[in-house]
Every structure is written in structure tokens, then in C-alpha cells.
Design goal:
Elements: H1 2-5, H2 11-21, E1 32-35, E2 38-39, E3 59-60, H3 63-77, E4 81-84, H4 93-106, E5 111-116, H5 123-131, E6 134-142, H6 146-152, H7 158-171, E7 174-181, H8 188-203, E8 209-214, H9 222-225, E9 232-236, H10 240-255, E10 273-277, H11 283-302
Parallel strand pairs: 1-4, 4-5, 5-6, 6-7, 7-8
Antiparallel strand pairs: 2-3, 9-10
Helix pairs in contact: 3-4, 4-5, 5-7
């Protein structure tokens, strides 16, 4: 069960460490099945690839088909553990209710985790999720600055976010956040809003951790395709695309190295595009400030 509590990016690593270090008689192999049943997003956060002008519509299986699949998969593979890899589990409130009620009606016992949005969750729905086996939700907060949220069209109510995290904690669902630093026009007070929100909810025990990301421009996103509309100017990175590919290859080699090999993963991030603000900071200022914010937020994560 602690596989769910671990940071979603750390779980596989922890499992592999246990597998390599525990003596055979102490190992217990447990199968956790991956499953995807919805694609694309109904929201259009301007930094995201899902905001592209030609974005495809949301595609999702109906709740009954999903529960049928889960029942068959768990029976076939003899496991009670699943990890869903959806854009957001609760894109539809009707789906959530029908899914949970079908699981309960059939008396199915399994545990799962997924990504979710704060927007349409209520205390009663969080309770339903728990009773249907949910043990971990990852929420895309991104920023707790109202100014930046409006700029990127996040459509997030911070008070509701606090409530949902509190409900999850009270019911027994572990919660994590996605955080982005370095978004356009993110001043110190905007960063402090995010920092304090995360710190507050960590101190309350409402979140088990968060994922920290430096913002980078995705060319087909709204910020990448209409930069002037968001008050920014794009600049080609001196690193270029070839260096990006080289670094990806180095990471792949490091991750697939045989046991016992010591290959370090290059720490630096390469970006094809960077940006400056039309009425604000230069590229160099943004890079320097983003790195400082990243380090400060990372220290919060380590504490």
C-alpha cells in the first residue's frame, strides 16, 4: 500500500531498490496493473500541450465498460492493485458516481491511484472515491497565484483546493500536487503565494509531497503559438535540438544500465525555446530567478 503513498515518480525506484537489496526470502512481488481509459483534457491551460488550437476532443470509456475491464483484469492477473494513467479521473461527475457505485454494487475489492482536478469534487464524492478503492490522487495545482492562474486560464478556486485536500486527508486518500515555477510574469509575490500554499498543506499533513517542474515553452501550446497575446517573446535556446536529443539518449542509457553500473544522469535541463517578457524581464533574468525559485521550493520538498 505504501507504493501509493510514495511520490508517484519515486514508487518504481523504491520497488527496484527493494527488489535488489532484500534477500529472496523477504521479497513479496506484487503486481500493480496500469490502465488508461480517458484521453485529452476539457480544459485549456495556456502552458499545456492540451491548449493547442487543433486539440482533439476528450475520449473516454463509459463507467460500466471501465469497471468490466477492471473486474476481468484483476481476476485474470490475480491482483488487487491498479494505477490509472488518465489526464484526470474526475473529468465528469456522472462518471465518478457511476464508477464508484458499480464498484460498490459488485463488491469489488481493489486499490487504485490517478490524477484528478479539484474543480468538481465534493466531500461526499471524496468519500465515494475512497470506498471504491482510491488511495492516491495527484492534483495539478501548478500555481497558487491568482494573477498567474488568470494569465494561463487555470480556472482554479484555491479555497476549494484547500477543502478538497482536507477532505482527502480526513478520509484517507494521499494527495500530491504538481507545481510549476518560472511561468511568465511570475514575480516574487506570485512565487510566495505558491510556496506558502504548499508549505501550509504540508504542515497540516494534507499532502504527502509534490512534483516540481521548471516551466518551459511547448511550441504548440497557446503560450508557444501566440506568445504576444501573453506578453512574451520567444527565443531559440543556444543548446538547440541536437543537445536535447543527446541528453535524452544519455538519460535512457543511464536508466537501462545493468545492475552494478554507475552512470550519472546529466542534471541540466535543455530547452529548445526560452522567452522574455515584453514589459518585464529578459531571458537571463527569467532563467536566474527560476533557478532560485526552484532551489527554494526544492528545499521545502526536502524538509
Amino acid at each position: 500500500m505504501h507504493y501509493y503513498k510514495w511520490n508517484i515518480t519515486k514508487g518504481p525506484t523504491v520497488s527496484e531498490v527493494n527488489r535488489r537489496t532484500l534477500p529472496p526470502q523477504e521479497r513479496k512481488e506484487t503486481l500493480i496493473l496500469p490502465y488508461v481509459f480517458n484521453y485529452n483534457c476539457s480544459y485549456r491551460c495556456a502552458f499545456c500541450v492540451q491548449s493547442r488550437e487543433d486539440k482533439p476532443p476528450v475520449v473516454a470509456k463509459d463507467a460500466r465498460s471501465v469497471v468490466d475491464d477492471i473486474e476481468a483484469l484483476n481476476s485474470k492477473h490475480n491482483t488487487e492493485y491498479m494505477r490509472f494513467y488518465n489526464n484526470a479521473f474526475n473529468l465528469s461527475t456522472s462518471f465518478v458516481r457511476e464508477f464508484c457505485n458499480l464498484v460498490l454494487e459488485r463488491g469489488l475489492k481493489f486499490y487504485w491511484s490517478d490524477c484528478a482536478r479539484f474543480n468538481n469534487l465534493t466531500e461526499e464524492m471524496v468519500d465515494l472515491l475512497y470506498r471504491s478503492g482510491c488511495r492516491k490522487l495527484v492534483f495539478g495545482l501548478d500555481t497558487a497565484s491568482k494573477k498567474i492562474s488568470k494569465l494561463i486560464d487555470k480556472r482554479l478556486n484555491l479555497e476549494q483546493a484547500r477543502q478538497v485536500l482536507g477532505w482527502c486527508h480526513a478520509r484517507g486518500i494521499w494527495a500530491e500536487l504538481e507545481i510549476i515555477v518560472g511561468l511568465p510574469y511570475e514575480q516574487e509575490e506570485d512565487f510566495e503565494d505558491t510556496y506558502c500554499f504548499v508549505q501550509e498543506n504540508m504542515q497540516k499533513g494534507y499532502i504527502t509531497g509534490f512534483h516540481l517542474n521548471r516551466y518551459f515553452v511547448i511550441p504548440c501550446s497557446l503560450l508557444g503559438s501566440k506568445p504576444e497575446q501573453y506578453g512574451i517573446r520567444l527565443h531559440c535556446s543556444p543548446d538547440g535540438y541536437e543537445k536535447l536529443l543527446k541528453r535524452s539518449a544519455e538519460i535512457l542509457i543511464a536508466l537501462t544500465a545493468p545492475q552494478g553500473d554507475t552512470i550519472s544522469i546529466p542534471p541540466r535541463q535543455y530547452q529548445i525555446l526560452r522567452y522574455s517578457e515584453l514589459t518585464g524581464r529578459t531571458v537571463e533574468q527569467i532563467v536566474e530567478e527560476t533557478e532560485d525559485k526552484f532551489k527554494r521550493m526544492r528545499s521545502l520538498m526536502q524538509r
